[in-house]
Amino acid sequence: MKQVVQNYKTGELALLDVPVPGCKPGGVLVRTAYSLISTGTELMKVSEAGMSMLGKARSRPDQVAKVVQSVAVNGVPATYRKVMGKLDSYTPLGYSLCGVVEQVGDGIDDVKAGDLVACAGNEHALHAELNWVPKNLYAPVPDGLAPQHAAFGTVGSIALQGVRRGEPQLGDVALVIGLGLIGQLVVQLLAASGARVVGADPDPVRCELAERLGAAACGDPGSPAVEQAVAELTGGLGVDQVYLAAGGDSNQPVELAARLSRDRGRVVDIGKCRLDLPWNAYYEKELDVRFSRSYGPGRYDPEYELQGRDYPAGYVRWTERRNLACFLDLAARGRVDVEPLVSRTADFDDAVETYRSLEGGGLKAVAVLFRYPGQTVEAPAPEVAVPAVRSGGPRSAPARPAGTPVRLAFVGAGNYATSMLLPHLAGRDGVELSTVVTTTALSAANAQHKFGFAGATTDLDAVLGDASVDAVFVVTRHSSHAELTRKALLAGKAVFVEKPLALTEDELAGVLAAVEESGNDRLQVGFNRRFAPLLRDASERFGARTGPGHVRYLVNAGRLDHGSWYLQQATEGSRFAGEGGHFVDTASRLLGADPVSVYALTTPGGEDLQVVLRYPDGSTATIGYVTTGPAGFPKETIDLVADGRALRLDDFVRASVYDGRKRWVSSRLPKARDKGQSAQLAAFVKAVRTGGPMPVPLESLVATTAATLAVRAGLAAGVPVTLAGAR
Fold first, then answer.
1. How far is CA 638 from the centre of its chain?
2. Which of 50, 118, 169, 258, CA to CA, is 20 to 30 A from 354?
3. Residues 6 or more apart in contact with residue 627 via CB below 8 angstroms
4. pLDDT tens profile 114-131
């Protein structure tokens, strides 16, 4: 078999042929599917090997002390031969992998051959095709977690143990210094625990990534932005914990930790940074300095790691093996997202070149995976359910009496509601803006004053219980859409909810359960683009299809402003989850059907997406969602090709249709582009007034939402996702 090794004396890296390890009792033989390069720990080791002998001595004073002691006991010649012999030999690399159990040793009964496991340890989870791993250093991979993501188990356990040492509580504010691989994971774990997180790193790309993964704010540790964010989030008290996940020789991290900690705060060292503690600063605040030892209790204990003697959970709740299993569970349930951290997946045969590229700076990465030859490990084919609509078909409602206005209530009055919806409703014939509901009194009063609402309140239940309100608009942050929609449906109201309808499958199922329970399917989601006049006009001129079609949809989304709540992915979902439904719905409208499968790919860092939708008749749609395009380029460009004809829509400003013989080109819109908001609202109000069906069938709204949710599942699994139950 092959294994990555390094000669510590010369710095030589090699992919060496070595014997297959035996399967000893108390462990399992694992064939590696993916192994992870920790670009911090491993590159530090690789870099040290390339130093001069003096440089090696300076970097490892602990080893120098052992050499001095050996000289005193054994003399210089014997010590020299011993040291040179140890240096001039191959040492292994790697400590985090996922693979398949190939053979089970005596005494093992919790896994069997063929099981997928994540493995840990710098002596047992090596960059090698086969590894023998003792019982307490592996954990079964939960169903649905892709092997390439399970390969993060060890580094995830290191981050998890560091967070446990900090003992965060709900509402705490934490500072993470160093946003490399471990720091990015610490940010996500803290956000998942209910803490608010500030990140510090000199790399702006890593800062932006951390904000997308849950940090409230990030910045250069030497800039005032970090101190300002801490002051705003803590009211000037200082952070409850600081997590040192940085490396290097600078003492800046521990000095920054002292400056931004609150009185009697905790400072947890997870990485390997310089720790010259400024005595006065730490003494005056009585800071609690803690160290986090690798993966957790059991690490470096041979009886635990090699002999398999577990610690009783009543005394040691979170051992290194239980930490490993916990992190895998969090990743499987989507509480931690490792896909955006993958900068490159390289073939194992290219391991040496990959290390050299990392060491030389040609490859800048947070995490790199090795994919092993011949590995056929795949997570079970992922599915996202498209819940069946069991309301008995589209329901009608009593028509409003002639001359009676449709009374609308708004829940939320943020920027989108006040700029894109309310201007089209205020003053519209047959519409009365009844009540606006917000969480803050002043925003409700502002909306009432500007748009003429009859009333303003912060009491949602009062509005839902008001029999005179015909329809409720849900225009709040994404995380509340599904629950507010469910409540309004159960209250018997027609509901217009801005996208997304739901952020999870459970939320979507909850909305459908409310429809079934109440018999009320009067629901519209704000997928406005299908109502755009240019799109409708171009579709009519294109005509009906006879064969499969293909839609190409380029979305030049652009970068978000620093501090945008769209970056709060831990609570509000990803950016694509928030607005991707627009593009899925538009493609489905052009193709006249709902998708049956979704395949999603992302660039390193997760900034740009490519989403491929497949439809029942073989039609496809490709949505390119990019944040790195130029600001002056059109935001949305759509092409439809089928039956020798082509349709193009340029940013909802101009449309054209080609059929091989003639070409139709629309007039350029004289004013701002029309993306269909006004027509969509008119259709919704008409349906409420007349009691007729909603503008878009509920089945289609559900299918579009499920397809948008499938993008996340597809990114996690790396394979197409079937929309189970799709029509």
1. 27
2. 118
3. 557, 558, 559, 560, 575, 607, 608
4. 999 999 999 999 999 999
How would you class 457 by CB atoms within 10 Å of its CB: exposed for 0-12, middle for 13-18, buried for 19 or more? middle
Which of the 8 DSSP states describes residue 494? E
User: Residue 394 — pLDDT band, cuts 50, 70, 90?
Assistant: low
SS3 readout for 318-374: CCHHHHHHHHHHHHHCCCCCCHHHEEEEEEHHHHHHHHHHHHHCCCCCCEEEEECCC
Largest CA distance in the chain: 107
Identity of the residue numbered 653:
V
DSSP-derived 3-state class of residue 464? helix
672: domain CATH number is 3.30.360.10
- Asked whether residue 314 is domain-assigned, the answer is yes
The type of residue at 80 is Y
Tell me the pLDDT band of 84, cut-offs 50, 70 and 90.
Answer: low
Please give the share of the chain, as a percent, with pLDDT higher than 90.
Answer: 66
Domain count for the chain? 4
Residues 174 and 240 reside in one and the same domain? yes
Say whether pTM exceeds 0.70.
no
pLDDT band at 552 (very low <50, low <70, confident <90, very high): very high
Decide if 401 is inside a domain.
no
Closest CA to 478 of 500, 460, 505: 500
Query: Cα dihedral sign for 338, 343, 345, 347?
Result: negative
Rounded Cα–Cα distance for residues 689 and 141 (Å): 53
Is the pLDDT at 557 greater than 80? The verdict is yes
Cα-based distances in Å from 708 to 334, 386, 403, 523: 15, 11, 40, 18
pLDDT of residue 587: 97
Examine the domain organization and report whether 439 and 332 are in the same domain. Answer: no
- Domain boundary residue among 371, 397, 427? 371
pLDDT digits (tens, 9 = 90+) for 153-175: 999 999 999 999 999 999 999 99
Q: pLDDT, tens digit, for every residue of 395-435?
A: 556 676 777 899 999 999 888 898 899 999 998 999 999 99
The residue count for the chain: 727
Q: How confident is the model at residue 57 (pLDDT cuts 50, 70, 90)?
A: very low
Using 50, 70 and 90 to split pLDDT, how confident is the model at 90?
A: confident
* The CA-based dihedral angle spanning residues 317, 321, 325, 328, taken in that order and rounded to the nearest 10 degrees: 130
Pairing of strands 90-92, 2-7: antiparallel
3-state secondary structure 11-54: CCEEEEECCCCCCCCCEEEEEEEEEEEECCHHHHHHHHHCCCHH
The 3-state DSSP class for residue 390 equals coil
Q: Which of 79-88, 377-386, 522-531 has the lowest mean pLDDT?
A: 79-88
Q: Which domain CATH number covers 515?
A: 3.40.50.720
Q: Which of 222, 269, 267, 227 is nearest to 245 (CA)?
A: 269
Tell me the C-alpha to C-alpha distance, in Å, between residue 308 and each of 113, 303, 305, 607: 19, 6, 6, 43
DSSP E strand stretches across 122-181: 130-134, 138-140, 173-177
Contact 44, 247 (CB under 8 A): yes
Domain span including residue 362: 2-152+301-371
pLDDT of residue 56: 43
In Å, what is the CA distance from 701 to each residue of 61, 382, 411, 527, 583? Answer: 64, 21, 20, 9, 13
CATH, residue 346: 3.90.180.10
The band of 185, judged by pLDDT with boundaries at 50, 70 and 90, is very high
C-alpha 193/C-alpha 536 separation (Å) is 47
Q: Residue 378 pLDDT more than 60? A: no
Amino acid at 447: A
In a domain, 376, yes or no: no
Q: Any bridge partners for residue 370, and if so which?
A: 35, 346
Q: Which of 603, 672, 600 minimizes the C-alpha distance to 635? A: 672
